[in-house]
């Protein structure tokens, strides 16, 4: 990094004369006059313009005047000669050293971020919002997503944020009720003035929140849903997904049941929420059936429903009981449900159909499901399969160890969880995009920056590549199974 000398402004000769006179006649006022005029001259310096003077660089820990190779003596001393000590621009941030009235530095250099006209972006903050359930039967999902995102944000903030700006997350509770989602989005947009939305939870709620964000050209990033409505082809410009889709999850588990467990497609049923979330998962199962059906006859899929935000599974169980005696025996249930409804369904069917295989997609909230089942008893937990869109939370890969350390520091007492790990990993890709976007941040620059990510090593195995036609970070599906102690172990779905 290099610094440029700034030609003396027209007022420089007056500056030197006044300072000299002050030292001869008014010693007590010398530093004050010098400081005031020096700040005025530096404030007028054209070097504060990032577009004309400073190249955009990544906000890596090595950035800054000293780490980049600039000598300490080139740091500006506010109140000194403007010709000999201009401010140093680092990716659009002016490095300034406050001084005492005698010209002695009194604290370390700090970056001053460029002003941005974007909503939610100030000199010291980038504010994001999340609409999620923080009350009701799905509240754990909202809580865990918030915890994971904040763990990543706080880790970045501990090292100076992004171009000197701290990352913050503002929450709004919709209770997993689409009727409340619109007001929650409006609150974050119009009252909290957030820059964009990250980690919103749910499919039926996304049917409301997504059009709101798109109509205002606001970022809609890393939503906790695998629904197809967020995965258009070509992708919506302002929508970026982290996780595998529900179609990918259900295909992986149906293939596992058919290929590894030797079941026939007609022996598999679906227990699903009666809304867009359940529809997305059910459609994934239907697609998997068509793909795996060698006969081409297209076996129909039995669907058993329950209503959102309830644990009333009686109708589903009644339909299961009333199947014709000559119908194929159901041996596996693919659940597209939330954790309490899933646990209730398992409780009421485990004795009805002994040996039934239960699977669920990742949205269920794995830890919460295991906890619910262990309350019922170990026999209900043992053998339940949950597909995941992130690696196991108890492995010893570097990225998971980093997550666990960040979680402990950010939210002491929180236990590692698949949902919070997803939030953490997703947020780290967002942070990479923010670094690439540069200090003069707006939504369009961030979209371009995210689309520039190629072959990015997140540490989970598959590398991340975005592009104009690719807005989904990962496609891999991991398999896990709960044991009689409520712990998860990995299983091979291939």
- What is the string of SSEs from the N terminus onward? HHHEEEEHEHEHEEHEHEHEHEHHEHHHEE
Q: What is the total domain count?
A: 3
How far apart the termini lie comes to 50 Å
Name of the level-1 CATH class of the largest domain: Alpha Beta
Round the mean pLDDT to the nearest integer and report it: 83
Radius of gyration: 28 Å
- Quick one: overall form? globular
**At the fourth CATH level, what is the homologous superfamily of the largest domain?**
Response regulator
- The side-by-side strand order for the widest beta sheet comes to 10-9-11-12-13-14-15
Q: Structural class of the helices, strands and pairings?
A: alpha/beta
User: Uncertain runs with pLDDT below 50, 5 residues or more?
Assistant: 1-110
Helix content: 25-40%
Compute the number of strand runs. 15
Main pleated-sheet profile: 7 strands, mixed
Please state roughly what percent of the residues sit in beta strands, choosing from under 5%, 5-15%, 15-25%, 25-35%, 35-45% or over 45%. Answer: 5-15%
How large is the count of helical segments?
15
CATH architecture of the largest domain: 3-Layer(aba) Sandwich
**CATH fold name of the largest domain:** Rossmann fold
């Amino acid at each position: 990094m290099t610094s440029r000398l700034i030609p003396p402004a027209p007022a420089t000769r007056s500056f030197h004369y006044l300072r000299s006179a002050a030292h001869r006649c008014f010693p007590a006022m010398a530093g004050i006059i010098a400081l005031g005029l020096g700040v005025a001259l530096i404030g007028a310096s054209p070097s504060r313009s990032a577009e004309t003077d400073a190249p955009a660089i990544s906000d890596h820990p090595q950035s800054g005047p000293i780490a980049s190779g600039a000598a300490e003596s080139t740091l500006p001393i506010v109140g000194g000669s403007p010709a000999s000590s201009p401010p140093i621009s680092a990716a659009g941030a002016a490095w300034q050293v406050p001084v005492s009235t005698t010209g002695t530095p009194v604290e370390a250099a700090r970056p001053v971020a460029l002003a941005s006209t974007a909503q939610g972006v100030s000199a010291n903050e980038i504010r994001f919002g999340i609409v999620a359930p923080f009350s009701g039967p799905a509240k754990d999902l909202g809580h865990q997503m918030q915890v994971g995102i904040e763990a990543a944000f706080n880790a970045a903030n501990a090292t100076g944020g992004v171009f000197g700006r701290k990352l913050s997350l503002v929450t709004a509770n919709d209770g997993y009720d689409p009727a409340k989602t619109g007001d929650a989005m409006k609150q974050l947009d119009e009252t909290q003035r957030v820059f964009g939305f990250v980690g919103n939870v749910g499919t039926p709620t996304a049917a409301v929140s997504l059009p709101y964000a798109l109509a205002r050209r606001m970022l809609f990033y890393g939503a906790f849903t695998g629904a197809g409505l967020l995965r258009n082809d070509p992708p919506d410009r302002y929508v970026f997904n982290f996780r595998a889709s529900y179609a990918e999850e259900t295909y992986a588990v149906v293939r596992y049941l058919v290929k590894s467990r030797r079941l026939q497609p007609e022996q598999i049923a679906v227990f699903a929420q009666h809304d867009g979330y359940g529809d997305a998962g059910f459609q994934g199962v239907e697609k998997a059936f068509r793909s795996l059906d060698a006969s081409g006859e297209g076996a129909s899929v039995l669907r058993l429903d329950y209503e959102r935000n309830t644990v009333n599974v009686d109708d589903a169980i009644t339909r299961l009981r009333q199947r014709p005696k000559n119908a194929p025996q159901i041996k596996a249930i693919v659940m597209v449900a939330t954790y309490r409804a899933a646990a209730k369904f398992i409780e009421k069917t485990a004795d009805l159909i002994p040996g039934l295989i239960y699977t669920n997609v990742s949205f269920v909230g794995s830890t919460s499901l295991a906890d619910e089942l262990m309350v019922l008893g170990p026999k209900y937990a043992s053998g339940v399969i949950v597909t995941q869109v992130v690696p196991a939370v108890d492995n010893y890969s570097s990225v998971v160890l980093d997550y666990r350390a960040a979680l402990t520091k950010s939210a002491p007492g929180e236990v590692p969880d698949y949902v919070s790990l997803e939030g953490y990993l997703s947020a780290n890709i967002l942070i990479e995009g923010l670094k690439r976007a540069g200090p003069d941040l707006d939504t369009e620059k961030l979209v371009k920056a995210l689309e520039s990510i190629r072959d990015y090593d997140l540490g989970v195995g598959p590398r991340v590549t975005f592009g104009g036609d690719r807005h989904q970070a990962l496609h891999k599906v991991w398999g896990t199974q709960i044991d009689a102690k409520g712990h998860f172990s990995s299983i091979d779905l291939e």
